[in-house]
Design a protein that fits this description.
Layout (H helix, E strand, L loop, with lengths): L1 E3 L2 E4 L3 H12 L4 E4 L6 H6 L1 H23 L10 H25 L3 E3 L3 E5 L2 E4 L4 E3 L2 E4 L3 E3 L13 H4 L8 E5 L3 H12 L3 E5 L10 H13 L3 E3 L6 E5 L2 E5 L11 E4 L3 E3 L32 E3 L10 H16 L14 E3 L5 E5 L2 H8 L3 E8 L2 H4 L7 E8 L4 E8 L3 H13 L4 H5 L17
Parallel strand pairs: 1-7, 2-3, 2-8, 3-4, 8-17, 10-11, 10-15, 11-12
Antiparallel strand pairs: 5-6, 6-7, 9-16, 13-14, 18-19, 19-22, 20-21, 21-22
Bound molecules: flavin-adenine dinucleotide and nicotinamide-adenine-dinucleotide.
């Protein structure tokens, strides 16, 4: 028998949950399918457990600084198993709260994968069917696996969250968010880390800041091997070896982390039969309103080819539910100027255009301001570990089109500046703002 409802959501990750909750809030009868516990990548294999690792890494890094400040006996090694349990308890708490909220909101949760059998009908793997005028695809993605010999000898990011012990020597392959974050985290916990990068590091971020970050990572003991194309992996008596092109891939290693991007979960959804086009990498193509080519079917989050960030999936899902059920026919997410933070050491925060893209688009109308300084907390201990901040401005009235910050605190600093940019920030607005002293953030309003 086919059951009827107003909205079917495939996937209970960041995007699917946000869509379902907002639609239910507007009074829609919602069915939410996911074979996994609610939370998706962010809660179980992404942002949340990663940020827990980052907090622990920050504490590890504060210990030498405490000694430099004169603390005696500061320090100690991390009880990995205790920390792993704390992290898991925290994640379990989020999952439980989601389950309670879903029940309270009257959302029917189905612990099964689903696929579309026609435009408004979804079938779960056990054969149960639901029908609705609206179906949202929010099935997210998974780590990309390369078709090269020995790939299975290594880990992907999901595997790092189940580790019972840390490796000694580890190779991280990739140059994006996951590669750089995990290289930094593993290094902070004392692993010997090599980062093998095929092309540019952190494409899309401002090159001046990524160069500074690369320098800092090497200063912290991460061995950077680039440019290198890794063609496979094998094991010998000493450990794991990577097969590179002309360049020496280092090694032997105890572990390899493949961090070579992510692919969307779109294969078994029945989309092609409905005329829904998939992009080159398998993403669902959507318009500005999250509509696919098939009326009544929408997609949000990592399954689309937009920025793969939790707040993006959440915001797109909420806007979509407001449009379908909240009486806001023009509601849609503005994908411009989305801020993001890379939880490296130190963190790298960025919103808007980097200098290269700004110059591509606006030529000589671009003017950049920058400030390089050692934060007081580090300078006090005699360290020279500069932070770098940069404003990218455009036109005679110097509209701020990019803000980039690398340094301690950059992660918490950027959100407010991103609001200002959304409101049309000009350089003169920053000049007119009184600084907060002594902070690192004040540099952003004091650039000459
Ligand atoms: C290591 C790592 C760290 C990250 N850190 C950050 C960060 O710090 N900040 C940030 O903003 N973003 C971060 N991200 C990105 C963020 O996790 C994703 O952008 C976000 O989770 C995307 O949400 P989503 O709802 O689109 O998909 P997902 O969260 O992946 O959820 C998709 C859900 O769909 C389910 N599903 C799949 N197929 C089906 C089916 N056929 N039927 C029903 N259900 C199905 C899956 O089980 C899953 O639960 C990180 C990602 C990774 C991998
Ligand atoms: N802090 C955060 O907000 C955060 C953290 C992690 C992930 N994310 C999100 O998740 C997305 C995915 O992150 P990611 O790091 O998996 O992907 P990514 O797209 O950021 O980086 C993939 C990297 O793999 C490299 N690569 C691809 N194929 C390769 C190959 N065959 N050999 C060697 N290198 C190869 C690419 O050149 C690139 O450097 C990010 O784009 C980001 O949106 C966000």
């Amino acid at each position: 028998m086919t059951q009827l409802c107003d909205l079917i959501v495939l996937g209970a990750g960041s995007g699917g949950l946000a869509t379902a909750f907002r639609a239910a809030h507007h009074g829609a009868k919602v069915v939410l399918l996911d074979p996994a516990p609610p939370g998706g990548t962010c809660v179980h294999r992404g942002c949340v457990p990663k940020k827990a690792l980052w907090y622990a890494a920050q504490l590890a890094q504060q210990q030498p600084l405490a000694r430099e400040y004169g603390f005696h006996g500061a320090g100690g090694t991390l009880d990995w198993e205790r920390f792993r349990q704390l992290r898991q308890d925290y994640v379990d708490g989020i999952t439980t709260r989601y389950e309670e909220r879903l029940q309270k909101a009257g959302i029917q949760r189905v612990p099964n994968a689903g696929r579309l059998v026609d435009a408004g009908t979804v079938q779960a793997v056990d054969g149960t069917r639901w029908q609705a005028p609206h179906v949202v695809i929010a099935t997210g993605g998974r780590p990309r696996r390369l078709d090269i010999p020995g790939f299975d000898l290594g880990w992907v990011s999901d595997d790092l969250f189940t580790l019972r012990a840390l490796p000694g020597r580890v190779a991280v392959v990739g140059g994006g968010y996951v590669a750089v974050e995990f290289a930094g985290l593993l290094r902070a916990f004392g692993c010997e880390v090599s980062l093998l990068v095929r092309g540019s590091l952190l494409d899309g971020f401002d090159a001046e800041l990524t160069d500074a970050l690369a320098e800092r990572m090497q200063h912290d003991g991460i061995r950077m091997i680039r440019p290198i194309e890794v063609r496979g992996a094998h094991r010998d008596a000493q450990g794991l070896r990577l097969d590179g092109d002309d360049m020496d891939a280092g090694g032997p290693y105890d572990a390899v982390l493949w961090a070579v991007g992510r692919v969307p979960n779109t294969e078994s959804l029945g989309l092609e039969a409905l005329g829904i086009a998939l992009g080159r990498q398998g993403h669902v193509s959507v318009d500005d309103y999250q509509n696919t080519a098939c009326p009544g079917i929408y997609a949000v989050g990592d399954v689309t080819d937009r920025k793969e960030l939790t707040p993006v999936a959440v915001a797109a899902g909420r806007r979509l539910a407001d449009r379908l059920f909240g009486g806001e026919p023009r509601a849609r997410l503005d994908y411009d100027n989305i801020p993001s933070v890379l939880f490296s050491e130190p963190p790298l925060a960025s919103v808007g255009l980097d200098e290269a893209r700004a110059r591509e688009q606006h030529g000589d109308a671009v003017r950049c301001y920058r400030s390089q300084f050692t934060p007081m907390q580090l300078a006090l201990a005699g360290r020279r570990e500069p932070s770098l901040m940069k404003l990218v401005c455009m036109g005679d009235d110097e509209r701020v089109v990019g803000i980039h910050a690398l340094g301690p605190g950059a992660d918490e600093m950027l959100q407010g500046f991103a609001v200002a940019m959304k409101l049309g920030l000009r350089k003169r607005d920053l000049d007119a703002t009184v600084a907060i002293h002594p902070t690192s953030a004040e540099e952003l309003v004091l650039m000459g």
